[in-house]
Amino acid sequence: MSSPSPEDENCVVAVKFLGPQLSFCRPAQRNSEWTNISVENPCFFSSRVMFSKKDDKFFIPGSGGQLIGSWDLRKEKLNIQKLKFKNLPELTKTTRELLDSCCTIENLVESVTTGEIFLVKQYKKTDEIIEGVVAKMKTEYVMVLKLDEEGNAVYTQDIGDLCIFLSRSEPFCVPATSLPGTDPNFVYIVDFDEMSILNVADCTFGFGKTGQYSAPYYIPPQYILD
Length: 226
Description:
The protein is mainly β. It folds into two domains: 1-82; 84-216, no CATH class. It has one helix and 17 strands. Strands 8-12-11-10-9 form a five-stranded mixed β-sheet, with helices on one face. The longest helix is centred in the middle third of the chain and has 8 residues, at 93-100. InterPro entries: KIB1-4_b-propeller. Residues 3-196 form the KIB1-4 beta-propeller domain. This is KIB1-4 beta-propeller domain-containing protein. It comes from Brassica carinata (Ethiopian mustard).
């Protein structure tokens, strides 16, 4: 949703289906109808949508992180851009082999206070098989990249006072000073099988624990303190 309230006449709701379909609707406008778009590139089939207040666009990360799609609400036009990765870290052979064995989740998140957009690549691997059927997943590595208007994805180890939250709900980013008990330059992760905190500065986990979490959701604050 482009705004917290569907009663806002400028609110746009976006729904990304598994497969090529992306749909938009303005629920508060009279005779509102769904606009259906087909995104044919298969790397977008399982992607989630992020709304950018700064650009007034919906962004869709492609699987693999090579492409990013955007729907401009003003021009009602879909644009697909190839990302140019810069300043990537030199990984050891052991780390490269670890990442190759993981599944990758691309998370797009925007800082409302700074206007920055980050691509957070989350690498997860099977940690345990329960009764030979259910696989418990664990985050092994996280890479944070800052996106710019030229399509550059610049690796960073410093997101300033910000902290990023990844869970089963929509990812979000807020200043640490607005949430007591959080630390700046950290990524907080919760899922059904894990709860972890990652230090962006050196890509180390402050702590990590596995278990069963029935409600693995971080809910963004409705009001952000300056």
